[in-house]
């Protein structure tokens, strides 16, 4: 995990990375987007240590990215579901997948893709201007300090 203080920094990216920037955290979120919801399912799909998974899931619940919901009474067992805050990470996860597809291609092609439910078209994350609505290319973006 990153430090909790960013001396001399006021950065929205650093704040976000404090919550989701650790490798296993993003892979857990990706697995949840793929439909995994139970502890054993995450263990199987991620090949992650139990203690690490438990810690990351607890942090995601604390941050209200996931919720812990009972699915069985005896014994009590829980599943982990993305909250609206967690679902809001869909664009970030897809953007990272697409970046990897473009810049770290595999010979056999990408192992996953994001499809639009309903028409099965491929979903792409793109930049658009909030004022004019026009698509914006990477070289047309100026990230600047506003305070």
From TrEMBL:
Highest taxon listed in the record's lineage: Bacteria
Alphabetical list of InterPro entries matching this protein: HTH_HxlR (IPR002577), WH-like_DNA-bd_sf (IPR036388), WH_DNA-bd_sf (IPR036390)
Keywords recorded for this protein, A-Z: DNA-binding, Plasmid, Transcription, Transcription regulation
Protein name per the record: Helix-turn-helix transcriptional regulator
Pfam families linked to this entry: HxlR (PF01638)
Coiled-coil intervals, chain numbering: none
Taxonomic source organism: Streptomyces zaomyceticus
Domain annotation HTH hxlR-type: ranges: 11-108
């Amino acid at each position: 995990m990153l430090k909790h203080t960013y001396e001399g920094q006021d950065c929205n990216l650093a704040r976000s990375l404090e919550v989701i920037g650790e490798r296993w955290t993003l892979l857990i979120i990706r697995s949840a987007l793929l439909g995994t919801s139970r502890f054993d399912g995450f263990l199987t799909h991620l090949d992650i240590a139990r203690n690490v998974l438990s810690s990351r899931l607890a942090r995601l619940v604390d941050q209200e990215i996931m919720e812990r919901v009972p699915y069985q009474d005896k014994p009590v067992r829980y599943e982990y579901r993305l909250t609206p805050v967690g679902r809001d990470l869909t664009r970030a996860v897809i953007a990272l997948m697409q970046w990897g597809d473009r810049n770290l291609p595999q010979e056999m092609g990408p192992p996953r893709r994001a499809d639009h439910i309903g028409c099965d078209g491929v979903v792409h994350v793109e930049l658009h201007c909030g004022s004019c609505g026009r698509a914006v290319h990477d070289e047309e973006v100026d990230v600047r300090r506003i305070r």
